[in-house]
Amino acid sequence: MGMGHLTRCLTLANALAEKGAQSCFLLRSHAAGLVALVEANGHAVRLLPDPSAGSRLETAEASTYAHWLPTTWQQDAEQTSFALNQIGVADWLIVDHYALDFRWENACRRGASRLLAIDDLADRRHDCDLLLDQNLVREMHARYRDRVVETCVQLLGPRYALLRPDFAQQRRLLTGRTGEIGRILVCYGGSDPANETAKALRAIADLERPSVEVDVVVGPSNPHADEIVQLCRGLSGARVHRGADNIAELMRRADLSIGAGGVMSWERCCLGLPAVAVDIADNQVGALTALADAGAALYLGSAAAVTVEMLAEGLLSLLDSAPRVRAMGQAALALADGEGRNRVVTQMYD
Questions:
Q1: Which InterPro entries match (predicted)?
Q2: What is the dihedral of CA 65, 9, 279, 333, to 10 degrees?
Q3: Which residues contact 17 (CB under 8 A, 6 or more apart)?
Q4: How far is CA 321 from the centre of its chain?
Q5: Which of 155, 182, 292, 332 could form a disulfide with 160 if both were Cys (CB 3.0 to 4.6 A apart)?
């Protein structure tokens, strides 16, 4: 599913732990490489076995994301229920997966008192007590009409964004942004398979602004790290941060960011950081469009269609317009404050 989904679930589990709750993560076996990260945060893990190669049951699933499971939703529900029986009845079952809907939720309800569904798409029905969609989308409050039961409590919008506590901490350290751009942050998430980072670096180089410093965050699974390091060597004032664990600090220090959508959108908003953004997946389009409408980002469109020249042109339009950049930062700052995890926990304990 991507590191953003795991990160937000870890953020919620860590916030629950502060209240004395214990969490157990159910991951599929192909994600075994992430077990150490979850356990390092103090949580238990159980791996659901993947089917053997070539044995996946064929289904006529209508869901666009059905193939994101290595098995059917029915088998996943059976394995999840078996794990829940071993763990014991949980106060909450939390599910964050685009391929799972009300059928899976209904089948797994016996193992938990209540169920929280985390969603971004509003493209399917849910059988849950609490629904969390942390995105800013047009007509947000009507998104789940007829998709949840009347008793379901909906937590909608960046006010509930599951951000790590260091973002709220760095927000408190913010000084007023002038709109002048002296430092740019380039960050496209954990892997960046299409190497959008290199495209952004070439766009910055084309500007020929040696006084502008650049922080480049390269995720631990980025296959293009060596090329990015080489590009940075030819760019004055560029620094590479591999697997940076201080992304919140880097965002606070930056004057402008270049990146994609997803959870990073709300991290940037929490710190009032204007963004030049592209979408790297269809599910990012709605939120990035809404961010642009709110004046918090310059959204250029799909990454695959955005050229180096288009990026450079967008950057140049902001470099020479401090009032516009300052207004973008103020608009972003008003959308998310970094306290969403606490609001969600409070609702769960209500």
A1: Glyco_trans_28_C (IPR007235), PseG (IPR020023)
A2: 150
A3: 23, 42, 43
A4: 29
A5: 155
Q: Is residue 266 packed enough to be buried (19+ CB in 10 Å), middle (13-18) or exposed (0-12)?
A: buried
The answer to pTM > 0.70 is: yes
Q: What tokens appear for 107 in the block?
A: 């089948």
Domains of the chain, with CATH numbers? 3-156 (3.40.50.11190), 166-333 (3.40.50.2000)
Round to whole Å and give the CA distance between 267 and 263. 7
Query: In sequence order, what E strands does the chain have?
Result: 24-28, 44-48, 90-95, 112-118, 130-133, 153-156, 183-187, 213-218, 238-242, 256-259, 275-279, 297-302
Give the pair of three-digit tokens for residue 206: 């084309």
Q: How far is CA 94 from CA 6, 127, 181, 301, in A?
A: 12, 12, 41, 32
Q: How confident is the model at residue 3 (pLDDT cuts 50, 70, 90)?
A: confident
Q: From residue 46, give the alpha-carbon distance in Å to each of 93, 130, 161.
A: 14, 24, 26
Question: Measured on CA atoms in the order 280, 285, 291, 296, is the torsion positive or negative?
Answer: positive
Residue 120: enclosing H or E segment and its boundaries? none
Band of pLDDT at residue 190, cut at 50, 70 and 90: confident
Q: Which long-range contacts (CB under 8 A, 24 or more apart) does 20-23 make?
A: 21/91
Q: Which amino acid is at 322?
A: A
User: Which string of DSSP letters, residue by residue, matches 159-186?
Assistant: GG----HHHHHHHHT-----S--SEEEE
Of 276, 236, 232, 222, the C-alpha closest to 254 is 276
Question: What is the largest distance, in Å, between two alpha-carbon atoms of the chain?
Answer: 61
